[in-house]
Amino acid sequence: MTSFQRKTGLGKGLSALLDDNETVNATKTGAEVAVAPAVGSISFIKIEDIETNPYQPRTEFDQVALNELSDSIKVQGLIQPITVRKNGDKYQLISGERRFRASKLAGLTEIPAYIRTADNQQMLEMALIENIQRENLNAIEVALSFQQMIDECNLKAEQLGERVGKNRTTVSNYLRLLKLPPVIQASIRDGKISMGHARALISVEETDKQLYIHHEIIDKGLSVRKVEEMVRGINHVVVKPQTTPEPVSFEYQKLQNDLSSKFSTKVKLKVKDNGKGSIEIPFVNSNDLNRILELLDW
């Protein structure tokens, strides 16, 4: 396959494509005159003139995979052009950030890019759709991207589904992940629990129960089917009605959140004006109590 990297003796197909584009190449009248690449063209653009996409939904790039792609680019060149839009004197990535990063690692100074027109909404949509189609985003990144599109593009779940090729139920399931406690979201993001585990946890209404089951999944490596059985059983567990907690300061709130993460249950701090108070660590059954006691080295 012909490489898009600039080399002596470019493939005829690419050379013809670039030479036939009047907006990309200079008009030859004895001496070539540089002309800025135009929208709709494929051109070689200096890497230093390309800015990353602020609407990129992917937040993590595997360094090992980037290095492997970089090594390939050093040998074969960049085969697939990135996509950019004009942004003042620079260009802004629409899609292809992984290829862009790997090309920089490979030491390229310019890379082929397809130039198109796109507003901020289109930038977000194209970056999201590209990544979803390639299945490079984890479930939380997809959920955050869906929520960002809804907020910034004023879309309803059904409209969003049409844009990204997902049905409304799928979109809603992703969005519901953002209602799970942060510690569970982190486990989904890091691949410690699957989307199937997450869907089962979503159906549990009480946060305390969600955190307990989440701990059991991590601690015992429970299958999705086993978690679904736990959910059906735990939904019948009677928990003490929750009372409205007294407001606590930011410092105590942070401590409360840290303790909740440590014990995988919703810890509550009750602090009076005179500084006295109590710490409440709820549990849903005897096994959960024993787990908490072990954490306390009891």
From TrEMBL:
UniProt cross-references to Gene3D superfamilies, sorted A to Z: 1.10.10.2830, 3.90.1530.30
Key word Oxidoreductase present: no
Domain of life: Bacteria
Family to which this protein belongs: Belongs to the ParB family.
Residue stretches making up the ParB-like N-terminal domain: 43-132
Keywords from the named record: Chromosome partition, DNA-binding
Classification via SUPFAM superfamilies: KorB DNA-binding domain-like, ParB/Sulfiredoxin
Database matches in Pfam families: HTH_ParB, ParB_C, ParB_N
Record's protein name: ParB/RepB/Spo0J family partition protein
Organism: Pedobacter montanisoli
